[in-house]
Design a protein that fits this description.
Blueprint: H1 11-25, H2 31-47, H3 53-68, E1 72-76, H4 78-83, H5 85-95, E2 98-101, H6 108-120, E3 133-134, H7 140-143, E4 144-145, E5 155-159, H8 163-171, E6 175-179, H9 186-189, E7 193-195, H10 199-213, H11 218-227, H12 230-243
Parallel strand pairs: 1-2, 1-5, 5-6, 6-7
Antiparallel strand pairs: 3-4
Helix pairs in contact: 1-2, 3-10, 3-11, 3-12, 5-10
Bound molecules: adenosine-5'-triphosphate and magnesium ion.
Magnesium ion binds next to helix 9.
């Protein structure tokens, strides 16, 4: 990225794209991940590449859910690992969550590469490699989770998740916090808290909210969770994309 000056108007977007490319070269991200990134970029462009007010409120509600959880788990796929590994390790520390590698195109090589990558960014324990649990209603490879990880979680953060699996996790009764730039995607639609924002902005902002909220009494967190309206958040995001509304 040395040939892209930091004052280039598309710097952040180009840097993000480069990270995904590097992730593919390192065996962390699948080639399909390149396509997913392109889809996300298009929505981000229309959103003005900013965290909208409604996305910020969703990020705050997500932080409250993670702090209230008995067993929160952050699910990591190849795109997420390439884009913000250190930020996810930090969020896991702040809210006391487990990190679990969870891939749509699961291969043992890529599972191991992502787990190593997360450890290089400070993770001490990475789940997902045992795969002794199953998500009901999904075919074999895509159903695999750790029984003491996502299998046991009450709250799961699933960024950029495939729609099918997001729906299956929701059907298991888990509180699902989804980061997805497309408010019309089934993943966002099945979420308890849909966060329509770029993962690179969303994760640090959830962490910021969690740091602020962890000093608050439990009733405050419960109120934030109860007052959050998922349908209104999706509507605000779609409206921002269609009309450019702030
Ligand atoms: P479904 O409609 O079943 O949910 P999909 O077509 O959305 O499926 P994918 O293309 O695999 O399935 O999903 C990738 C999703 O991730 C897209 O909705 C895209 O907008 C989103 N996405 C991609 N990159 C980012 C990113 N950096 N931050 C947030 N969301 C992203
Ligand atoms: Mg989707």
């Amino acid at each position: 990225m040395t040939d892209i000056p930091a004052d280039h108007p598309r710097y952040e977007s180009l840097l993000t794209r480069h990270r995904i490319e590097a992730g593919v070269d390192e065996g962390i991200t699948s080639r399909q991940g390149l396509i997913a990134q392109g889809r996300g970029e298009a929505f981000d462009y229309l959103l003005g590449e900013r965290t909208t007010e409604s996305a910020d409120a969703a990020e705050r509600a997500a932080a409250a859910h993670l702090l209230l959880a008995d067993h929160p788990v952050l699910s990591i796929n190849g795109n997420v690992a390439a884009l913000c590994p250190g930020e996810l390790v930090e969020l896991a520390e702040v809210v006391g969550a487990d990190l679990e590698v969870n891939l749509f195109n699961r291969t043992e090589e890529r599972m191991a590469a992502i787990a190593d990558h997360l450890r290089e960014h400070g993770a001490t324990e990475v789940k997902g490699l045992t795969a002794d649990g199953r998500i009901p209603g999904l075919s074999h490879e895509r159903a695999k989770v750790d029984a003491d990880g996502i299998g046991d979680a009450d709250v799961v953060l699933v960024p950029l998740e495939d729609g099918d699996r997001a729906e299956a996790l929701a059907a298991m009764g888990k509180v699902e916090l989804v980061v997805d730039l497309n408010p019309m995607s089934r993943s966002a639609q099945s979420a308890t808290v849909p966060i329509v924002d770029n993962i690179v902005r969303a994760v640090p902002n959830v962490t910021r909210h969690a740091r602020e909220l962890r000093r608050r009494p439990r009733e405050d967190l419960e109120r934030i969770v109860a007052e959050f309206d998922a349908a209104a958040a999706l509507e605000a995001a779609e409206n921002a994309i269609r009309t450019g509304a702030k």
